[in-house]
């Protein structure tokens, strides 16, 4: 039986690279995004959802459960960045960042992890950020949400140890995605999304007795 991976935000950027990597390796891939995409590999199931809304997170979880008897890997990737500073960013920015970058992962993990616990097997990757460990002056609520995401990952790691479920936090620096569209810098100055997908595959492929708890990735020349 093919193994199954669930990847949120899988139509663009880092999520899309992860979807394509695991699909190529023969996984059944289940993904979601706010907008539809008709150009996904054949072994990918797609569900349209805005994961900043709890009801849509739970609808996606129901779709996953109706599509596969088990989930082997969960990648909480959904998130986005709004620049600004805490003292002057628009009202509601923190709520938007927390709902999208943290609550989506919290609610989906709670909805799917029960079967992993029963099986005593599974792997959860949480896409955090170097903004989870570095305070950027224009990061504002984004940094707050990503610090919280890393905290959730650490707690999950401790909670799920007894059930042989591995948890890894991925902390990428500047990655060449739509978030950097229009920036006049060479692509070589960024991490490639494919490199993050390769790192996740490598971590997953390690023996189940070993876990990479945190992986920090930066462009060779450092943060932007």
SSE layout:
Layout: E1 4-8, H1 13-24, E2 28-33, E3 44-48, H2 54-67, E4 73-76, H3 93-119, E5 122-127, H4 140-160, E6 165-172, H5 193-205, E7 214-217
Parallel strand pairs: 1-2, 1-4, 2-3, 4-5, 5-6, 6-7
Architecture overview:
Its EC number is 1.-.-.-. Keywords: Oxidoreductase. One of its GO terms (molecular function) is oxidoreductase activity. It comes from Arcicella aquatica. This protein has one domain: 3-Layer(aba) Sandwich (Rossmann fold). The protein is 39% helix and 17% strand. It has helices at 13-24, 54-67, 93-119, 140-160, 193-205, and strands spanning 4-8, 28-33, 44-48, 73-76, 122-127, 165-172, 214-217. Strands 3-2-1-4-5-6-7 form a seven-stranded parallel beta sheet, with helices on both faces. Helix 1 (13-24) crosses helix 5. The protein starts with a strand and ends in a 7-residue tail after the last strand.
Number of strands: 7
Mean pLDDT reading: 94
Number of domains: 1
Shape: globular
Q: pLDDT under 50 segments (min length 5)?
A: none
Share of residues in strands: 15-25%
The topology string of helices and strands comes to EHEEHEHEHEHE
Largest sheet: 7 strands, parallel
- For the CA atoms, what is the radius of gyration? 17 Å
Major sheet strand order: 3-2-1-4-5-6-7
Distance between the termini: 43 Å
What is the CATH domain class? Alpha Beta
- What is the CATH architecture annotation? 3-Layer(aba) Sandwich
Number of distinct helices: 5
InterPro entries: NAD(P)-bd_dom_sf, Sc_DH/Rdtase_CS, SDR_fam
GO molecular function, one term: oxidoreductase activity
Family: Belongs to the short-chain dehydrogenases/reductases (SDR) family.
EC number: 1.-.-.-
